[in-house]
Amino acid sequence: MAQGSASNAFRLSALTGHLVVALIALIVIGGATRVMQAGLACPDWPLCYGQWLPGGQLNAQVFLEWFHRLDAFVVGVALLVLTTASLWARRSLPRWLPFTAGLALLLVAVQGGLGALTVTRLLAAPLVTAHLATALLLVALLSGIHQALRVTVAAHPGEPASLPRWWIALVAAALLLLLGQCLLGGSLASTWGAERCLSTGDGCDQLLRHRLGARAAALLPLLLFPASLAASGTRGWLRRGALAAALLVMVQIGLGIATLRLSLAAPAVTIAHQSGAALLVALLAGCLGRSLASHGVPSTPSVDSAPSLMSSRSGPEPLEVAHG
Fold it and tell me: Can you give the pTM of this predicted structure?
């Protein structure tokens, strides 16, 4: 890869990595906001009590809702930077990057609109579920972009372009099933279905669907690690990612059981369960993005004359840092 191309890709890879962390934090804070019943702690939008920093009304609930909005704003600005930079240096970057960055920017705009509606419509359950679903799609998209870019900038990619198609299909199916399960969980949480079922016996059909869906959603990630041992070309990060996904699924199962046995009375356990789902989405999407990049789907033309996002003097050094 040309030096300018490598430096551009490395810089954007670092940005997407930070975005994945910020998005997972956004989901964790959003889960905490729901569990602490702080979704309407700021009664107006986009301000909070008519101020950018509601110092006079600041308490734990207001801080959660305010910080949730602040994180979302930072993510939106970072995605605008990512999209602009990928368009500016598009000749030296993978052809798919400007499109996927633009899609992420569109999703975060939708996410902001849904966030506003959840406040103005007083936490209507369909809007809360859609808000969570969009956040998880953003995590999946950015994690996939990040890992694909890491393959692009690595001097010696960890996985050669010889991955079997059945492996890519298995990872994609695992991710889709997990997103569907997260959607069931989001609907259950936004309608307080589990709480109603445990306290009054009402709405237990939702809880049952979530528990049944968990079996199917857990099966494929658990199969990924043994499948990675059988598939050619899945050494390095992909194999470690598959193992991490399998371990995280087992932790998620334990957290789900603990959440119900504690009758959802332990907020930390409930939040950890939601956070684990976001981490699992990021892991599987990262495996899919890296698999597609290693398989040769994204291509990076070498154009020495393309604009560089950082000095050519720093080009060779990041390659070692980004080696996956």
Answer: 0.85
